[in-house]
Amino acid sequence: MVRKLLCLSVLLSVFWIGFSNVAVAAGDEDDKTGFIMHHVKDSHEWHFATFGHTHLTLPLPVIIYSSDRGLEVFSSSNFQNPETHLFGKEYGHNGYYIDEHDHLKAVDEERSFIDLSITKNVAMLFIVIAIVLWILLSAASHYKKNPGQAPKGAASFIEPIVVFVRDEIALPNIGHHKYKNFTPYLLTIFFFIWFGNLLGLFPGAANLTGNIAVTATLAIFTFFVTNLNGNKDYWKHVVATPGVPVPLLLIIVPVEIIGLFTKPFALMVRLFVAITAGHIVILSFIGLIFVFESYAVGLASTIMVVFINMIELLVATIQAYVFTLFSAMYIGQAVAEHEHH
Amino acid sequence: MDLIIPGSGLIIWQIIGFSILLFILAKFAWKPILSALEEREKSIEDALKSAEIARNEMANLKAENEKIILEAKLERDEMLLKATETARQVVEDAKGVAQAEGAKLLEAAKKAIETEKQAALEDVKVQVAALSLSIAEKVLRKTLADDAKQKELVDELINEIKFN
Fold first, then answer.
1. Which of A53, A199, B14, B85 is deepest in the core (most CB within 10 A)?
2. A73-92 as b/e: b if 16+ CB within 10 A
3. Cβ–Cβ below 8 Å for B14 and A214
4. Could you read off the pLDDT tens digit of each residue along chain A, which spans 341 residues?
5. Contact B10/A214, CB-based, under 8 Å?
6. How many other C-beta atoms can be found within 10 angstroms of the C-beta atom of residue B123?
7. Which of residues 33-72 of B touch A (CB under 8 A)?
8. What does each C-alpha distance from B27 to A131, A196, B21, B133 come to in angstroms?
9. CB contact under 8 A, A126 and B17
């Protein structure tokens, strides 16, 4: 198992270095580390590699909805220089342009619209969803075809995880009365984040679960699941905490209400920071090679990248676990019965 | 795009995508998987429980068997004892009867032998007497066949008489 992980990490690192190398070569001469933030952030095109002056990219659809013009679909290649693949105001198309920071803007600044583009992260989102669905549905079909038998294939891979989420996360935190209602949600959250984290570690992949929009949405899901299922005790605890003198309620109640929002906020920030930081650390070690342009640094950086990659595999799992665990705890607090402090 | 400002498009896609994922997984993955797991756990628990019950039954059966065997052994011992007693009694009785019978038979035999002996003796006496008579007669006839001899006898007898 350890040897396999090591091999995997080395392989990943080799790819990282390979791709990063050409990414830098494509960048500005002075900007040797710009590729780091370019990788971490979302983009309207999927950039894989650059060989000399040839850019290996996947142009993505730009979808715009505006009240006056309805739905419009373009290719992101319409908005860039065909040679350098740079976006900019001068490469506008049909009244829109993508600026240097990859923001879609209207030439007419008065117009308002919604950018529904399939960006790099949206495409990654579809890939993650497809892979999660493929693995879990094939596992489910095994259970349907062989009732009451030992798991095999995909089923034997996911079964311990499903049992772990159910018995170690859902059951102890939510309680045996209600945990069955929330287990599907927690399992979905876990597998989505876990696969998102792991697939994000692949070279050329997008930093999906390290994007704040994604983590914010997941946190909002937990927020709604928690508060829509909150029982009388839970809301009484929030708006009129039992056992607290009335003058203190003036302080406690606002704190409790703020607490409703800090919980998902913490979920959002934790996952975003952990995954993005991991990517930045790995890319920074690779960036050092190009800053110092030395073989010694290259060797040291490679060793560190291998090491950090192994940690990232761990972090990918831990962060999925932590997000699921805290979601379960928040839901558990909301549905707990006869809990008076 | 910015690092810490969520993009509206991505949020919308994420909401749609995750909702679809949640719906499909809940309906077509988690429901069969969780119910299959539960079913299997239940069947394992049931199997363990029935094994426990079977084991208890076995133990009960064994205890009962042992009890029955013990009872049977006791009964056998009792029967053996009774049988020995009866056999001894029978032998004893038989011995008594046999002895009495034997004694009676012996007595009768003795009596018969005695009677036979007496009869034989009587017979012998009669026979002897008859035999003696016939011998005497024959002797007499032989010795007294001629006159000289008769005279001699007479003389002898006279002589005897004389000497007496």
1. B14
2. ebebbbbbeeeebebeeeee
3. yes
4. 667 766 666 666 666 655 554 444 444 445 777 888 888 888 888 988 888 788 888 889 999 998 888 888 998 888 888 888 888 888 888 888 888 888 888 888 888 888 899 999 999 999 999 999 999 999 999 998 888 788 888 889 999 999 999 999 999 999 988 899 999 999 999 999 999 999 999 988 899 999 999 999 999 999 999 999 999 888 988 888 888 888 888 888 899 999 999 999 999 999 999 999 999 999 999 999 888 888 999 999 999 999 999 999 999 999 999 999 999 999 999 998 865 54
5. yes
6. 10
7. 33-34, 36-37, 39-40, 43
8. 17, 21, 10, 149
9. yes
How far is A116 from chain B, CA to nearest CA, in Å? 4
Q: What is the mean pLDDT of chain B?
A: 90
Q: Quick one: pLDDT at residue A107?
A: 85
Nearest residue of chain A to residue B32 (CA atoms): A140
| Residues contacting A271, CB < 8 A, separation 6+ | A193, A209, A210, A215, A218, A319, A322, A323
A293 conformational bin, left if phi > 0, alpha if psi -120 to 50, beta if neither: left
> How far is residue B156's CA from residue A309's CA, in Å, rounded to a whole number?
176
Report the candidate in A54, A125, A296, A251 with the shortest Cα–Cα distance to residue B19. A125
Question: For residue B33, which residues of chain A lie inside 8 Å, CB to CB?
Answer: 136, 139-140, 143, 155, 158-159, 162
CA distance A317 to A337: 31
Residue B146: phi and psi, rounded to 5, are -115, 170
Are A43 and B1 an interchain contact pair (Cβ–Cβ within 8 Å)? yes
Residues of A with Cβ-Cβ distance to B2 under 8 angstroms: 41, 101
Are A159 and B22 inside 8 Å of each other by CB?
A: no
Query: Which residues on B lie below 8 Å from A212 (Cβ)?
Result: 3-6
Place of tokens 């997984």: B25
- The ipTM is 0.85
Provide, for chain A, the percentages of residues in helix, strand and coil under a 3-state DSSP scheme, each rounded to the nearest 5: 65, 10, 25
Rounded to a whole number, what is the distance in Å from the CA of A29 to chain B's nearest CA? 22
Chain B nearest-CA distance from A321, in A, is 17
**Interchain CB distance below 8 Å, B3 and A119:** no
Residues of chain B with pLDDT under 70: 1, 163-164
CB within 8 Å: B10 and A136: no
